[in-house]
Design a protein that fits this description.
Length: about 170
Amino acid sequence: MKTENIILRSWRESDAEALYEMCLDDALRKSGIGFYDSIADSLNAVRCWENNRGFKVIADGKDSIFIGFISLSDMGRYNGYMEMEYAVAAGYRNRGYATQAVKSMLGCGFGEMNLSAVAAWVRSHNKESARVLEKCSFTFEGRLRKHARDKSDTLCYSVLREEWENVRRNQIYK
């Protein structure tokens, strides 16, 4: 999947070191995203994700280098309901990459994976990530107080297939 500036591609073993280095970022660790304590741990994760169409690398559109990741994963609710998770390495933030990745992954989720709903949860202090979700047509559903392991609040968002399709239709006619 390709957008204006990024490519969502499958994982490669060569991404393990960049994934590990991204996980050293304190801001990422505070965001609630899972992280890896070694290159070996990162490599094990990459090997699990290599053939999973719901787990993608966000790569630079020019040279395909790793700049982050995005995933759609089963939450155990019902068939067609998944959770989105994403992260962009510190040196690539605030360039619109996360927004492009989320929109592209939603297209895949609703188009190719035939999803009904996509949920995303963010820590209340992660205002940048909440803004990405809002730009991508997610609806704020509520706040879970002291829900996170660090006792911060969690903000709950979701987007339904029909909402996504309506937004896409309106973009075509503008």
